[in-house]
Design brief:
About 85% of the residues lie in helices and about 0% in strands. It is an all-alpha fold. The longest helix has about 45 residues, at about 1-50. The protein is globular and about 55 Å long.
C-alpha cells in the first residue's frame, strides 16, 4: 500500500512539473513572438518612411544615430544578462522591448540591400526550421547539454571569424561563416528549448523571478531566430 502511495505521489509530481514546464515555455514563446512582431513592424516602418530612414543613413553613409542603433542592442543584451539579479521586472521588461525596437531599426537596412520577396521567403524558411528544431528540443529524451556546449563554442568561433573577415573581406570566408552560422543556430534552438523546458519544470509560476526568467528565455530564443534569419538571408536573399 505504501509503495502504491509513493508511486502516486511521484506520478502527481511529474505531471505537475510537466504542466509548469508547458506553461513556462508557452509564456516564453508568447514574449518571443511579441518581440519579433515589434521588430518586424519597426523595421518595415523605418524602411518605408524616408524621413526616418534618413535619420539612420545619409548619402555619405551611416549617421551617428545609425551607429548607435547598430551597436546599442549588444549593450542592452549585456545589461540584461549581467543585471538580471539587480534589475526589477518592469525595468527588465522595458529593456527587452527597447531591444526589440532597436533591432527593428537596425534590420531596416536589409530592405535596402535585399528584395522584399526574398526577405519574406527567408523569413518563412527561418520560421519553419526554427519551429521544427523547437519541437525536437522540447520532445527529445536525449540530453543536449554537451551538444549545446559545442554550439556555444561555435558561436564564439563565428564571432572571431567574423571580426577577422572584416579585415580580410573574403567572400569565400563569408560564405563559410554563414553556412556554419546556420548549423550552429539551428542546433542552438533545440538546445535552448530543452534547457528552458528544464528550467520551467522547477520554477514557481507567477513570481517576479519566474517572469524575469521568462523574459530572458524569450530573449534567448529571439536571438536564435534573428541570427538564423540573417545567416539564411545571405543564401536566399536577392540583392538589389
Amino acid at each position: 500500500m505504501y509503495q502504491d502511495d509513493k508511486e502516486t505521489i511521484l506520478y502527481s509530481d511529474r505531471v505537475e512539473s510537466q504542466g509548469m514546464a508547458r506553461t513556462f515555455i508557452a509564456n516564453v514563446f508568447a514574449w518571443m513572438f511579441m518581440a519579433l512582431l515589434l521588430t518586424a513592424v519597426t523595421s518595415v516602418y523605418f524602411a518605408t518612411n524616408e524621413s526616418f530612414l534618413r535619420m539612420l543613413v545619409s548619402t555619405t553613409g551611416m549617421t551617428t544615430l545609425g551607429y548607435v542603433v547598430l551597436f546599442a542592442p549588444f549593450g542592452l543584451v549585456m545589461a540584461m544578462s549581467m543585471g538580471f539579479q539587480r534589475l526589477s521586472l518592469p525595468v527588465l521588461t522595458l529593456l527587452f522591448l527597447a531591444y526589440a525596437v532597436l533591432m527593428g531599426m537596425s534590420l531596416s537596412f536589409i530592405f535596402l540591400m535585399y528584395s522584399l520577396g526574398s526577405i519574406f521567403l527567408t523569413f518563412g524558411i527561418t520560421a519553419g526550421m526554427f519551429g521544427i528544431m523547437a519541437i525536437m528540443g522540447y520532445t527529445t529524451k536525449t540530453d543536449l547539454t554537451k551538444f549545446g556546449s559545442l554550439m556555444i563554442m561555435g558561436v564564439i568561433g563565428i564571432v572571431i571569424a567574423s571580426i577577422v573577415n572584416m579585415f580580410m573581406q573574403s567572400s569565400t570566408m563569408d560564405y563559410i561563416i554563414s553556412f556554419i552560422g546556420v548549423l550552429v543556430f539551428t542546433g542552438l534552438t533545440a538546445y535552448d528549448v530543452q534547457k528552458l523546458k528544464r528550467i520551467g519544470s522547477g520554477v514557481e509560476l507567477g513570481t517576479a523571478d519566474t517572469k524575469k526568467l521568462t523574459l530572458m528565455g524569450a530573449l534567448t530564443l529571439y536571438l536564435d531566430f534573428i541570427n538564423l534569419f540573417l545567416f539564411l538571408l545571405r543564401f536566399f536573399g536577392n540583392r538589389k
